Amino acid sequence: MVFCSDSGVTPVLILTVFVTCFGSSFVIGYNLGIMNLPGEPCNPLQVVKNFTSKYIKDAPSPAFMYALVSAVFVVAGAIGSFSSGILAESLGRRNTLLMNNAFSIAGAILTGPCVVAESPALLYVGRVVTGFNAGISMGVASLYLTEVSPRDIRGAVGACHQLAVTIGITVAYILTLDQVLNTETLWPLAVGLGAVPAAISMFLLPICPESPRFLFTNKKNEYEARKAFVKMNSKEDVDMFIGELREEMETAQQQPKFKFSQIFTRRDLRMPILLACLIQVQQQLSGINAVITYSSTMLRTAGLANDKIQYCVVGIGAFNVVVTVISVSLLERTGRRQLLLWPAIVLSLSLLVLTITVTLASQLPDGNGAKTLGIVSAVFIFVYIGAFAIGLGPVPGLIVSELFRQEPRAAAYALSQGIQWLSNLLVLISYPSIDNAGVTPMLVLTVFITTFGSSGLVGYNTGVLNLPGDNIKNFISRFVQGGPGADFMYALVSAIFVVAGAIGSFSSGVMAEKLGRRNTLLMNNAIAIIGAVISGPCVFARSPALLYVGRVVTGFNAGITLGVASLYLTEISPRDIRGAIGACHQLALTLGILIAYILTLDVVLNTETLWPVAVGLSGVPAAISMFVLPFCPESPRFLFMNKGNEHGARKAFVKLNSKEDVDMFIEELKEEMEAAKRRSKFKCGQIFTAKDLRMPVLLACLIQVQQQLSGINAAAIGGYSFLIFLVFVVACWIVFFLYLPETKNRTFDDVAEELATPHIVVGKNHSHKEKSSMQLFTRQNFADETQFRA
Of the ranges 214-228, 298-312, 643-657, 669-683, which one carries the lowest mean pLDDT score? Predict the structure, then answer.
């Protein structure tokens, strides 16, 4: 048993954990799950749809109005999370939760009578208030539980927060079954019942003591800190605890008083902040809240029978609770790091299977095949939930609070929770819209491979030479004697990249019209590989000329990509989400820059010999794209308008768009071609002479000039859901595998000290008494190896 008699557990600790989880954590889960089932299974979202459309005239689509109920909750949650750090530091952990109970009660009182009052505004305002409550609870409840618990069971106590969230979700699912409160008039009652736990907590929480760490470190009240510690810990020595806090305070006093802005400026906080935010982003972009909020819609999309959906949703909630209970004991046995890493692999595999089964189910007519795929999809949603409940569910809230010392802990936790809520907003807003937007698996593949193998490379090659600047200058000055200064030669590396990029951009139009959009990008992948092959061995070959030639080639590649990738993405995307898919190009650019920055950190590849490896790695995405892109269709518009291939255009359109009518699309293209025939054949010189093109050309050029002269590059020098979630989970998993240390049974100071000098860790568990994880690519290791070889 985790909470055995020799673990230091006291009755006051049990009461504190229960009241915190029941009055705060439970309410989060309850309010997250309460809006999932209304209207199911007979007609999706019907109850909320009927209610909002009855009283809001000329409202947007019902799906949008329903998504807005979740969206305002999440936006308010983000605001609450960002505010939680300040509240926790000024009022204390317990008092913040006590005040927050009032928000929960107020939100329930506002929402409850919305049907009786015939006012959808009450529903939306109430969800704003309960969202703000949830954001504060997310930011403070885990922090409070972590600080009041004995070290040996800190993981188990911290996991109770996530357990209570899952129980709250399950209770919400049960109360909104058709046989309980899921009716046109009673569903607001289920929403209003969220006030009951908060009211009970308001009476019991004042009996519980404040966090001993807060009392000693923030309030300088040693007497009260000792009293609170003894009430909640019967095993550990209070003098040793106070001694640790004194040492931590002495260390903190040697630095200026902590301010929130230092989260972004202090070097020793960079890696902990990065890990904390990535953990929270991974948790949300794994898709869990899309499953919690839209599980009924997902199961219907997957082909499950309508009369089985609501019971399957309740089963998901109950299964989530059971597996989370198991994780409570595993946290102390296996550690945080292991539970974050290995269940994520199972989660990724389940997302991959769901991508396949949901896609096939959506393309099959109703029948045994679709029913079988629906059952398989439901099974793997349970597998997904189980993997999440063991790892990504309980671990983030606990491990994030363990990564920091006392001073920055509340602020850092608030920041990471705010990022989590914003990630949650992205999922909840995008899922229902894109799920109904005609997205096909081929469109997802095409967008991904285009952004991964083309757009992302532009960002990567833009940022990859930023941080290694000093090493590049040393390399050039070593082999280029008597020339201009090292600064000029380094600037020349960027200048020739930009000049070649301009040439590539001017050439891209001709190539896209002659070869086609897809084939131009395919040829361009070869250019990217050539540039990487030329630049990569420059240090080994002792030839700065290879670096310059390679940058010319990659610059030319970047120019073609910027001219064609956006054009291709725009032409293949359904009209309703053309803007979102077009924005994926810029998103990939920024991700490429970020990856380049990470790979060229001092602790990774920013050394005198390894920085060209980072430059050469740009060939990897291009090589993958060369193999995958031929399976993607050409732009239907290009096939019809330029090649006159109606049959090919129809095939490509159907592969990429499952919603819009192909005959209507072809008719639009025919009308466009007839209008074009009435004009003389277009020549490039007409860009400068045709009157009707003057304003569009001027605007297009000004937009591009504004983008660049804003300084950005100077600063930088359906199956949809499951596949996108999979990409984020795998990407974050790699980062955590490399950089996230184990925190089990370690002091906060010990963890913070290790992260202050970030290094790649090998997956070895260690306690605070054991030696830190093996370090790779650190300056000291490099120096020792050099000395040994000498």
Answer: 298-312
Contact 351, 287 (CB under 8 A): yes
Q: What sign does the dihedral 131-136-140-145 (CA atoms) show?
A: negative
First to last CA, the chain: 55
Is residue 414 pLDDT above 90, yes or no? no
The residue among 68, 172, 76, 80 whose CA lies nearest residue 121 is 68
Report the C-alpha gap between 475 and 490 in whole angstroms.
10
Name the amino acid, one letter, at 737: F
- Topology alike, domains 5-208+265-439 and 440-630: yes
**Residue 695: enclosing H or E segment and its boundaries?**
helix 694-709
- pLDDT, mean of residues 468-480: 84
Query: What does the block give as tokens for 515?
Result: 């070869």
pLDDT at 703: 55
DSSP 741-759: PP-TT--HHHHHHHHHS--
Higher-confidence position of 778 and 205 = 205
Tokens 């809006």, residue located: 35
Angle, helices 406-435/120-148, rounded to nearest 10 degrees: 140
Quote the CA–CA distance of 64 and 33 in Å, as a whole number. 18
Mean pLDDT computed over 59-80 = 77
Domain locations in the chain? 5-208+265-439, 210-256, 440-630, 633-678, 684-717
Which range, 124-133, 240-249, 649-658, is most confident?
Answer: 124-133
Beta bridge pairs of residue 776: 760
Q: Rounded CA gap, 336 and 401, in Å?
A: 12
Report the 10 Å Cβ neighbour count for 460.
27
Closest to 235 measured CA to CA, from 9, 17, 4, 3: 9
Location of structure tokens 């990487």: 532
d(Cα 175, Cα 172) in Å, to the nearest integer?
A: 5
Does 75 or 364 have the greater pLDDT score? 75
The answer to whether the beta carbons of residues 593 and 543 sit under 8 Å apart is no
Q: pTM of the entire structure?
A: 0.60
Q: In degrees rounded to 5, what are phi and psi of residue 760?
A: -75, 130
Beta bridge partner(s), residue 760? 776
| CB-based contacts of 607-612 (< 8 A; 24+ apart in sequence) | 607/471, 607/777, 607/782, 608/471, 608/474, 608/475, 608/539, 609/539, 610/777, 611/468, 611/471, 611/472, 611/539, 612/535, 612/536, 612/537, 612/538, 612/539, 612/540, 612/547
Q: Tell me the CATH architecture of domain 5-208+265-439.
A: Up-down Bundle (1.20)
- Within 8 A by CB and 6+ apart from 788, the residues are none
- Whether the CB-CB separation of 572 and 442 falls below 8 Å is answered with no
pLDDT of residue 568: 94
Taking the CB of residue 488, how many other CB atoms lie within 10 A of it? Answer: 11
- d(CA 277, CA 398) in angstroms, rounded, equals 13
How many Å apart are CA 711 and CA 310, to the nearest integer? 52
Amino acid at 344: A
**% of the chain with per-residue pLDDT over 90:** 25
> Domain 440-630 is in which class?
mainly alpha
